[in-house]
Write a structure and sequence with these properties.
- The structure is a single chain.
- The chain is mainly α and about 475 residues long.
- The protein folds into 3 domains: about 180 residues, no CATH class; about 170 residues, no CATH class; about 60 residues, no CATH class.
- The protein has 19 helices and 14 strands.
- A 3-stranded antiparallel beta sheet has the order 5-6-7. A 3-stranded antiparallel beta sheet has the order 12-13-14, with no helix packed on it.
- A hairpin with a 2-residue loop joins strand 12 and strand 13.
- The protein is elongated and about 90 Å long.
- The termini are far apart.
- This is HNH endonuclease.
- It comes from Agromyces fucosus.
- Keywords: Endonuclease, Hydrolase, Nuclease.
Length: about 475
């Protein structure tokens, strides 16, 4: 029997043994087991289960590290991941285990950092994190704690003194396992993260690289995986980039009078009542306007010859009934029909008719969007977002069809008004009313803000405001004329 065959038999033996372990655990545990335990017994069982889980974590990481070693880029087309049709070791683990990409990358990170290697001359090479490797083997440290130690200390590896780095690793492992004089109890993963970050700052405070060079290396912006209907973002901005973004946000979140058709008392009352968003929500909406403005500016690279455009797909029947969801390319989450209508109003619509089998039967022409000339004219008329008290300028606004396309509304200056991203997104549920009277937009506040429901012209255009002031203060003879 060849070596290759022997290794296959060995792997099959391990898999069979693990299946026996799984069956034994299944026999011991069932869904009703926790309910029959007393409080102390329940907590003891939770701890025992976690101990078993940590032991499994150690071997999950070890196997992931071996997969990563055999999938090294240096191996070219012969690397394991490529031979199995995957781009990386993490993707291969995803396919085999059905875990998430983030969990696969975490196992690869820990497995590679705790894996002993072999030098060019065949000599053994210790693992990058030997203390952590020893604790993992015994099941004393879980995968989450191990990943925290590797991630935080890894940021300082190129600048920290090796002896100090070794001390930091050993003390963090002691904290995680509850051993040593400085660790009377085991630290939780969150507590360990705080301590690891403190060590990282200590190890890197006198690094040989200037702060600016380190910042350039560590800068980044990340879009996370969807959860609870939102896409989390994280990252690190260079100070000057953060300063520019903060200034943009401050400029549009600072209090400023609005609503030119109101009296001073009404305007003050509106400023207090009309804004219901938190500061964080307002920052989000300003950022949304920045993204939209950049996308339509024409100053960014095109995709397929077109400006960066998000494709949203939705069934026509769902738009009619108001039930269902839409999909936007680039994100896994479905989007609401309200969001789809908002994007249709802003970007137009193209009808694609499919048969039951999915074949394209007809492809309609895109509905015409407001042209740049129309946008300039509407900007001169409206000045900025029509909602009183809103300070978003015209350049950051979207054009809203007062009468929707679906109801026969024309793409004409007499049917388009400027609204910021937030007020456009929420116009159907906010209570604000908008109508056109002889081509001039009028606004009606929500009932809770103006029980009388009065319609008033609205604009922030300097020239129109000047005309209005001149008219209001003109002599009776001139008004009559």
């Amino acid at each position: 029997m060849s070596v290759g065959d022997g290794s296959v038999v060995g792997m099959a033996g391990i898999a069979e043994a693990l299946e026996q372990v799984r069956s034994a655990l299944h026999a011991v545990l069932d869904s009703e087991a926790p309910r029959g335990l007393g409080d102390d017994e329940l907590l003891l069982a939770v701890g025992a289960l976690e101990s078993v889980g940590r032991l499994l974590d150690a071997h999950r990481a070890a196997f992931a590290g071996e997969v990563a070693e055999r999938s090294r880029v240096e191996l070219g087309a012969g690397r394991l991941s490529a031979r199995k049709g995957c781009r990386s070791a993490a993707e291969l683990l995803e396919r085999v285990t059905q875990i998430s990409g983030s969990e696969a990358r975490r196992r690869v990170l820990v497995g590679s950092a705790t894996r002993a290697g072999t030098g060019l001359a065949g000599q053994p090479v210790p693992a990058p994190h030997p203390h952590l490797a020893a604790a993992l083997v015994t099941g004393s440290v879980g995968l989450d704690a191990a990943a925290t130690i590797v991630r935080e200390l890894g940021r300082t590896r190129t600048v920290a003194d090796p002896a100090q780095l070794d001390v930091a690793e050993r003390e963090l492992v002691d904290q995680a396992t509850g051993t040593g004089d400085a660790a009377p109890v085991r630290a939780s993963a969150d507590e360990l993260a705080v301590q690891a970050r403190a060590w990282a700052i200590f190890l890197d405070q006198d690094g040989p690289e200037p702060d600016d060079e380190r910042a350039m290396r560590r800068r980044g912006f990340r879009l996370g995986r969807a959860r609870d209907g939102l896409i989390p973002v994280s990252g690190e901005l260079l100070p000057e980039v953060a300063a520019k973004l903060r200034r943009l946000l401050d400029a549009h979140l600072s209090p400023r009078s609005g609503g030119s058709f109101l009296t001073d008392a009404e305007r003050a009352d509106l400023a207090v009542q009309a804004e219901t968003r938190t500061t964080e929500q307002q920052r989000h909406d300003v950022l949304a306007a920045i993204v939209d403005t950049a996308a339509r500016s024409g100053e960014h690279p095109t995709i397929g010859g077109q400006a960066p455009t998000v494709l949203v797909s939705v069934r026509a029947s769902d738009l009619v009934t108001g039930h269902g969801a839409a999909r936007a390319d680039g994100v896994d989450l479905p989007i609401s029909l309200r969001a789809a209508r908002h994007m249709i109003c802003t970007g137009g619509i193209q009808a694609v008719v499919l048969d039951d089998g999915g074949r394209i039967l007809s492809l309609g022409s895109p509905e015409r969007c407001f042209t740049p000339h129309q946008r300039r004219a509407i900007t001169l008329r409206d000045g900025g977002c029509l909602i009183p008290g809103c300070t978003v300028p015209a350049a950051w606004c979207e054009i809203h069809h007062v009468v929707p396309d679906a109801h026969g509304g024309a793409t004409h200056t007499d049917n388009g008004v400027l609204l910021c991203w937030f007020h456009h997104r929420s116009i159907d549920i906010s209570g604000w009313g908008i109508r056109m009277k002889h081509g001039v937009p009028e606004i009606r506040p929500p009932a809770w803000l103006d029980p009388g429901g009065h319609w008033r012209p609205s604009t922030t255009s300097p020239t129109r405001l000047a005309d209005r002031l001149e008219l209001d203060h003109a002599s009776p003879e001139r008004k009559t004329a």
